[in-house]
Amino acid sequence: MMREILFLAHRIPWPADRGDKIRSHHILKRLCEMAPVHVGTFADDERDMGFAEAMDGLVASRHVELRDKPHWQAGLEGLFTGRPISVQSFASRTMQNWVDARIASGRISHIFCFSGQMAQYVPNDFAGRFIMDFVDVDSAKFESYAEEGHAFMRWVNRREGRVLGRFETEIAARANASLLVSEAEAALFQRRTATSIVMALGNGIDTAFYDPDGHFKKLHPPFPDPLIVFTGQMDYRPNIEAVSDFAQNAMPVISAQHPEATFAIVGRNPNQAVSDLSMLPGVQVTGAVEDVRSWLAAADVVVAPLRIARGIQNKVLEAMAMAKPVVASPAAAEGIDAEHGQHFFVEENVGAEAARVCTLLAEPSSGLSIGKAARAHVMAHYGWRSQLAPLDRLMGLGTDDPQ
């Protein structure tokens, strides 16, 4: 039997420029070292569609489809069919036909599915090995969303958490293994699904790329000094809530002690709520930037004040790799094997975050020391090669029986 891999991902794993794509990008590259890989994936926009050809020469075949289904349509379909809305957002007959054709060829012995939305394309009767990377417990995220907002959205998110939880349980029962990004997420998933074959597959970091001494464009004066930086996709709700809280509640405290301090919100697709934060004193919204390393290198402090977070935050590891002092919330720090006060700072609330940032701005040498220790720690423990080492055993491509 031919041994080839079908890799399904909800976003094209090229370029590796946001958290989920960074993980899928490195997993795909590792799988391509094991066997021929066929990739089925979606692009969020025309920009991402333009990167489809970047996979040529690496993968055996690819199907990249522009996902343009409106949110309202996915919502109605989800409510009508009883399926999770977040799953229905990625439902496509064209994608299903492509997947079915690949499997019908008789060459596919393994399916690696990245993100629960893509599990709908794996046939119930697939006889090969099926590895499901849920990454995070998405149903728990929607349950947390249901605790706030207006009544209708609370109902929608409560329903999504419940229906998606059932979907996750059903998929996990079919998979040969279910992967989560951290031990904490894996333990939560196991409790919720009663699934036995659950394990953590952590995120890594490219420390050669995220190197403060690397070759990248530097921000040239005049730029804000001192500079506090947040990085992330700025149409993502947890990021929006994080920067809003920090800009509105931490920056007034910081500005009182450090009047020249600027909080730079660095990331593409800022929604209107984020863009409006630039009207606040000491707040700058950059939108998309050419190279996030330029802003990380210029930062005096990097903050990750997320109140809702699942799994491991790449933004924290990237800043640590760039030898920057990081002030993170407990949610943003969860799953990262590092010590408070030694490799980064974990603060309980926005008041404590503001106080810690003030201290670091007042004592630059302390920040330099923490940043140096942070980079050394990331280099020692978070390389992609070591993080993805369990894939060899999970895929079982070195044995005679792929089952």
TrEMBL record:
InterPro entries: Glycosyltransferase_grp1, Sugar_tfrase_PEP-CTERM_Stp1. The keyword Transferase applies. Gene3D superfamilies: Glycogen Phosphorylase B. It holds the Pfam family Glyco_trans_1_4. GO terms for molecular function: glycosyltransferase activity. The keyword Transmembrane does not apply. Keywords: Transferase. This is TIGR03087 family PEP-CTERM/XrtA system glycosyltransferase.
